[in-house]
Amino acid sequence: MEKKTKKLSIILDNAARDSKPTIQVSTIEKISLNESYIIQAESINLRLARGEKLTGLKMGFTSKAKMEQMGVHDMIWGRLTNTMEIQDKGIMNLDKFIHPRAEPEIAFLLKKNINSTITIEEAESCISGLASAIEIIDSRYKNFKFSLEDVIADNCSSSGYVIGEWHAPNTDISNVGITIGANGKIEASGNSNAILGNPLQSLVEAVRLSLKYGQELKKGMIILAGAATSAIAINPGDTIEANFGSLGNLSFNAK
Ligand code: 0L1
Ligand code: MG
């Protein structure tokens, strides 16, 4: 098993490094859900061995609509590293991406190491802040097409993130209107309550899944809660802007 997962993790790492799409790894070798998480971990370990630092986790399929669309019954999760970060109002270098899309999310900053499951009532006490965020998803697969196992192996498409100003942990994020668009035109709109009813529930699920798969959650890590709207395409020259009401605006330029 080890040899197979290693081989597929290198294919995905090369696709990400070279910004060149690959065929779905599940068409090269049959893989189970468990193996897809091993491939993800091995692929991220290749990045860490090159000096990247793990900065947090991203949650995916945290809206009922997206789960139903994919025919799955659980969320998925991936890993964030420091080289994925794009500054608010900064530049996104498109040479590093294949066919990127942007989706508005909520981010949490962990206040402490977390070693056991939490309830939604306990979630606030686990964070030192929360912020508006944009995740850049960029499937390493041709035509953004994949099976569930493929997308998990591919770090759940995660390839970039922008984080806004941190707000107090008790900021109400249960009902925040959110829009995202390009060049002054809104392309998708939604509400934070599309994220599992309340984005804090996504933190609860992130803790559950990280414990299940043996991924440590440490003080200072960022957790991306999942998308509040569908993802929009990012094209050369675009200014991508997302509005999060009282949480503020985020933007970046794609060059
Ligand atoms: O919600 C997500 O971030 C899911 C990402 C994986 C699926 C996709 O690439 O759309
Ligand atoms: Mg996302």
From TrEMBL:
Fumarylacetoacetase-like C-terminal domain span: 75-250
One GO MF term attached to the UniProt entry: 2-oxopent-4-enoate hydratase activity
Protein name: 2-oxo-3-hexenedioate decarboxylase
Keyword terms, alphabetized: Lyase
Species annotation: Maribacter vaceletii
Family matches, as InterPro entries: Fumarylacetoacetase-like_C, Fumarylacetoacetase_C_sf, Hydratase-Decarb/MhpD_sf
Pfam families with a match to the protein in the record: FAA_hydrolase
Domain of life of the native organism: Bacteria
Cellular component GO terms, alphabetical: cytoplasm
